[in-house]
Design brief:
Radius of gyration: 15 Å
Number of helices: 2
Low-confidence stretches: none
Mean pLDDT: 90
Order of helices and strands: EEHEEEEH
Length: 113
Amino acid sequence: MAELINLNYSFFYIKLFEVSHLSFQTWHNLIDLPTELVIKPEKIFQAELEILSANIKDDVVEVICNQYDKTFDYCGGVLRISANRIEICDEKMNTISLDELSSICDKYWDTFR
């Protein structure tokens, strides 16, 4: 989706303000291993997380993520965030409004139709 803003872009930044909850429940590569609850931001965001979907449950945003780096022992998980305010920015740190993001999403998914 970032490429729809600029062909050289490949990701977005997310700024979180007044965070009251941040955690990542991992999905281990080996299915029989227990999941791990990660709460340190530096550990959560070590891997490049790819957003698959998101929903809101009890005022917490739950983001279903994949991650492909084989140096980690998990393939994805559920990122949970509760914050007073969230800003989405492009790679040059320009803020993207919700309407702009919605339009970008529509254009992205229209390419599959």
